[in-house]
Amino acid sequence: MVTLLHIDSSVLPGEASASRSVAAAFRTAWEEQHPEGTVIHRDLAADPIPHITADAWSAGYTAPSERTPEQSAAFAAREKLIEELEQADAILIGAPMHNFSVPSTLKTWLDNVLLLGRTAGESPSAQSTPTIVVASRGGSYAPGTPREGFDFVQNYLEAVLHRTLGLDLDFIVPELTLAPRNPAMSELIPLYEASRNRAFEDATTKAKELAERLAA
Q1: pTM of the model
Q2: Does the N terminus or the C terminus of the chain have fewer Cβ atoms within 10 A?
Q3: In what residue span(s) does the Flavodoxin-like fold domain sit (predicted)?
């Protein structure tokens, strides 16, 4: 029985959020392939994780027998998040662009699960776990666009998720999501629609391919 860890971080609910909608399409296709599987869903907007504290951070580098009561209490919540990461057979993350980077709630989750010597280091404990990130954005930051250098979502997540945590990372990128609501972007609506359709197709295809890969 396989486990999918599903992280949402958009502040927008339901279909108002491109990252939630595309991630939901992935999850639906995944559950069709794994009806008996387990999904651990964390909605970081509805149920934010507390920012990492000095006690939670220092406890990660202190032997359990030597931790203060405050460190032990702080690390218990952090360890639950780490264990969810380690137990997952696949990971799905909705990461909409907020002011050119990831939402602060997602950054907080990453701060909690990144622990040198366990999830990070020479042998990361979740190494090679297949990970799909839905990196939606209101505009386009593709090579050749005016704001190409303003994308601090994909390069940041590549560094943290792949190079640091060792996850097997893949992206789905719905872009120009503001086009239907911004009159100044109205001429870009056809490009938005094409990007949206491609993202949903990719979500379904990648979910099925991943399910087959894990079943092999």
Answers
A1: 0.95
A2: C
A3: 4-163
